[in-house]
Every structure is written in structure tokens, then in C-alpha cells.
Amino acid sequence: MADGIVATVNDRIITGYDLRQRMLMLIASSQVQPTQENLPAIQQAALNALIEDQLKAGELAKFADQLQVSDADVNEEIAGMAQSSGTTAQAYLDYLRQGGIQPDAFRQNLRTDIGWSRLVGGRFGSRARPTPAQVDQEMLRLNQAASQPQYLIGEIYIEAARVGGQQAAMNGAQQLVQQIIQGAPFQAVARQFSAAPSAAARVPGDAGWLVKGSVQPALQTVFDQLQPGQLSNPIAVDGGVYIIYMRDKRDGAAASLVSMKQVMVQLPETATEAQVAEATRTLEGLRQGLTCDNILSQARATQGVLGADLGESDVGDLAPQFQQFARTGEVGTVSTPIRTPLGLHLVAVCGRRIGGPEAPSRQQVEGRLRSQNLQVLERRYLRDLRNDSLIEFK
Fold this sequence. Notes:
The protein has a 4-stranded antiparallel beta sheet with strand order 4-3-6-5, sandwiched between helices. The chain contains 14 helices and 11 strands. α1 (16-30) crosses α2 (39-61), α3 (71-84) crosses α4 (89-98) and α3 (71-84) packs across α5. β9 (338-340) and β10 (343-354) form a beta hairpin. With 394 residues, the chain is of the alpha+beta class. The radius of gyration is 28 Å and the shape is elongated.
């Protein structure tokens, strides 16, 4: 590979030297062994990364007065990477140098990454924060999924548009599968090659627990077949190719817990249609103004109506007639009249959470949503920068 210019991004150049250095960094960090078959995929991934670096550097230049990345910041990042590898910063740099990676090129790469992370966080941090309604919706989804089969997934996604087409994505994925089988760490490969948002997660490639039926059919079929600890073959989907690592499976042992209150009109099972109709009119007249805060006081103020706090229960332990609304009703909503052998009821969902040791807290759910939103905004930012740039290959 010559040392001439291999590409330009606006007025910024990428040389053969830059490309070799990035390929060596990618090989060292992913522990993928270069072969005649996978070198094209490594080169393409390195070139994509360099193009993005130039886009990031150009954008960072606009905020140079506000975003200063010092040598101390870079040294701290290197120290953290070295500690994760069980060595010292100097030994880590020596290891890279032995692999042909020049410290100056490595430090510049880190400087760009640190600056970009700060820019994205400062620019989109407030927009990435989920609303209380979005957190409520995610908590509801998790509760509804609590009893469904679930899969703890590691993922690598090769995006066809970034590597030269669907066949190139499939060829690259096949090479990566072979490298992982031969010992390349899944997380390291995901961090360097995956186009999924999870590539930037705290644990690269970690897609978390996914619920049966929430993914594309081609992926669901593989989820059902894989056992914990197994790696899939490449899976073709629209737009790219997935590699899936099945970290764990569970049958949905977490309990879905709901807090409920009710008002009711007592009616025996032998009540006439007229009696049921009258009770229905009474409850419908109350229903529009009921909230979790006033439902019991409204019951006490209405003749012939009883109120009760049902407390917190596992949805599966509730009366069968209440279970559907308990699972699907949004927090703060009141049901339509529900008939049971005891009478006619209105029930209000006043709280919901997942029980069990693995149940996420509301704060954890909010943090995960914010991270996901920030990753989506970052990828959109880069995509827009790329679309607005002049990129030429020599």
C-alpha cells in the first residue's frame, strides 16, 4: 500500500500511512488475525473509521474554543485502557509500537474520540433524556414481557451500505465468525466492526435481554435454536448481516407486580339485567373523574359503592377478570366496569414494576433509554455530516 493519498474528506486527506495505522489499531484491538480472505474487510472497516474521524475532526474544529482535549485527558484514557488490559500505560504503548502502531497516531485517534464524545454529549444530552411518558411506556413493555421467554444477546451487525453491498457484508461476517471461533473476543470484534448502536455500549455488542417476538423473524428463528454459549452463523436481514452470540436464556421468571385500587357495587351472581344496568350507570357516572388519589374518597361519598386499596400483587395472583387490564392499563388509568361473582368493579392501575432480583429500577430504565437515544442521535449526526461532505477515493 503506497503512502500516497487514498481518499479526501472535504479538504482533509487520508493517506496510505493513515490507513495502515488504522488497520493495525483495528487488528490489535479486535485480536482478529489478518488473512488473505479478511484483509479486504479489515481495510474497508479501517477506511470507514478514518472517514468518520475526518468528519468528526472537521466538526470539532468549529468548536475549538469550547472543546479542548488536553494531553492529560489522552493520558488518562490510555491509563484506563492499560488498566483494563492488566498492564501499565508505558507497557501498553510499547505493545502497540511492537505491532507497528505509532504512539502519535494512536494518541490523535483518542483525542478525536474524546472530543467527539464531549461534543455529542453537550449537543444532544438534553434531547436524549427520555420523557416520563417514555419511561412509563418502557416500564409497561418490560412488565408485559416479564412472563415471556427472553434472550440475553450479544450482536454484531455488518451494514451492507458501509461495506460495499449485501454480499460483501455476508463475506465479512463469515470471516468474523471464523475469527471469533479461533479465539478473537466477541466484544472486541463488536466494538471495531459492528454498526449496531450496541457497539458503543459499556459492554460492546451487548444488546441486553430481548423478548420473544420483538425481533425480525429471521433472528427469532436463530434465537430459538441457539443454546447459551453458542455463536450463530451469519444471518442475512434487509440492509445487512447479523452475528448473534446467545449469552443466556430464561423463561420469564421475573414477576409483573401491579398496585391497584377499586370501587365496586356488590351484586350477586343471580342479579337481574336491570340491576347490572343500574350498577353500570352508577360506575360510569363516577369513572370520568376518578384518579388513584381520589378513588377511595369518591367511593365513600357515593351511596351503594365500596372502595378498597388492593395493594401490590403479582398480576398472575389477581382475579382472572382483572388480569388483562392489570397487564395493559397505563399507570393512572381506570378500567371500564368489570363483572365478577362479587359484583361490578372499576379498577385503577396506580403503580407497576417488575419483581425479582433481575428487575431493573426506573432509574436504570431511564439511563438505558438515554444511552440508546444518544447513540441514535450520534449516528444521525454522522450520517448528516457524511451526506453533506465531499468524499473522494483516489
